[in-house]
Specification:
The structure is a single chain. This protein has about 325 residues and is of the alpha/beta class. It has two domains: about 160 residues, 3-Layer(aba) Sandwich (Oxidized Rhodanese, domain 1), CATH 3.40.250.10; about 120 residues, Oxidized Rhodanese, domain 1 (3-Layer(aba) Sandwich). It is built from eleven helices and eleven strands. It has a five-stranded parallel β-sheet. It has a four-stranded parallel β-sheet with strand order 9-8-10-11. Strands 3-7 form a two-stranded antiparallel sheet. α5 links the parallel β5 and β6.
């Protein structure tokens, strides 16, 4: 008799937990006030990058999910309740400002509310870490720069979340999330302008990291730059050097070791750049998560190479991807 009672209690609790989890995962509670438990608050205070397991804990509490992969129909599957987002939609498209964030905060606010961004809800962003350009990092950097400080990218992206058991659905770019209430309030902590970079170029504590492919650093222009080369003094660290073959971040110690080998410490102010501020934004997210002081030069090579060659110099390397400071 006692065994039957215990079995009944266990069954009741299991069913109740299943119903609760199913409702939340299916986003039935998306309009309720987001309440953080102690575990989640610790994540929010200390991280830009979270694991698949951490992401799922936030989603169970009602976090917003953004799919930063191409919004074109290239992806057969997406995650349940994920909304497609394209970094280009929030960026300028004309030279020499191509790649920089839109300047009108009202337009940005409208766009972000339209994809369901709320002030009080964390946002988790995933991408294609193996074949992508770090679009998830660009979105997280953008949200942080526009004032949403509870934005995170998922280590390993879509593949890691699926492997972790997150439910998938057929991809659609027409998902209609509830309208958000987020209002843009810019934060310049992680942003470097062209003029700021030019002014501080010779400072001893400034480290510039070129996150592009080795061929780009050496002078080739496969993505429409008006001039080839790299910003004088830039160290080359291709952003995918920090990923393993499965698209997962290398260990913290390994990345720190790689940075130390380049002479980079937490005493430095780091500026990252690439072609249009995407790969460099991903690198900014990683470095910030590691505790470095880092800013993304979002104009990057599209802006720098389109500016006067007499003022905004570029250097050509004899070797692809030479990474020592001063080359």
């Amino acid at each position: 008799m006692l065994g039957l009672i215990i079995f009944g209690l266990i069954s009741t609790l299991a069913i109740a937990n299943y119903i609760k989890t199913t409702k939340i995962v299916n986003n039935q509670s998306i309009n309720s006030q987001f309440v953080l438990n102690q575990y989640s608050q610790k994540i929010l205070n200390n991280q830009w990058i979270i694991s698949s397991a951490q992401a799922q804990k936030l989603v169970v509490q009602g976090a917003t999910i953004l799919d930063a992969r191409s919004c074109k129909i290239f992806n057969i599957q997406s995650l349940l309740n994920a909304t497609c987002i394209s970094w280009q939609e929030f960026s300028q498209s004309q030279s020499p400002f191509k790649g920089k964030l839109l300047t009108d905060d009202k337009v940005l606010t409208e766009k972000l509310q339209g994809i369901g961004i709320f002030n009080h809800k964390p946002v988790i962003v995933f991408g294609n870490t193996i074949n992508g350009w770090g679009e998830d990092g660009r979105i997280v950097w953008m949200l942080r720069t526009l004032g949403h400080q509870k934005s995170f990218l998922v280590d390993g992206g879509f593949t890691a979340l699926v492997k972790g058991g997150f439910p998938t659905v057929k991809f659609t770019k027409n998902n209609s999330p509830p309208r958000g209430d987020f209002v843009v309030n810019r934060n310049k902590n992680w942003l470097m302008s062209q003029n700021e970079l030019k002014t501080n170029l010779e400072k001893d504590n400034l480290v510039i990291i070129d996150t592009r492919e080795p061929q780009e650093y050496a002078g080739k222009t496969p993505y429409g730059e008006e001039r080839g080369g790299h910003i004088p003094g830039a160290i080359h660290i291709y952003f995918k050097y920090w990923l393993d073959n499965n698209g997962m971040l290398l260990s913290r110690d390994k990345i720190l070791e790689m940075l130390t080998e380049k002479g980079i410490t937490k005493d430095n102010i780091i500026v990252t750049y690439c072609t249009g501020g995407v790969r460099s934004a991903w690198s900014t997210s990683v470095l910030t998560d590691l505790g470095f002081k880092v800013k993304n030069y979002s104009g990057s090579m599209w802006e720098w190479s389109a500016s006067s060659a007499d003022i905004y110099h570029l250097k050509i390397s004899r070797k692809e991807g030479v990474g020592n400071r001063g080359n």
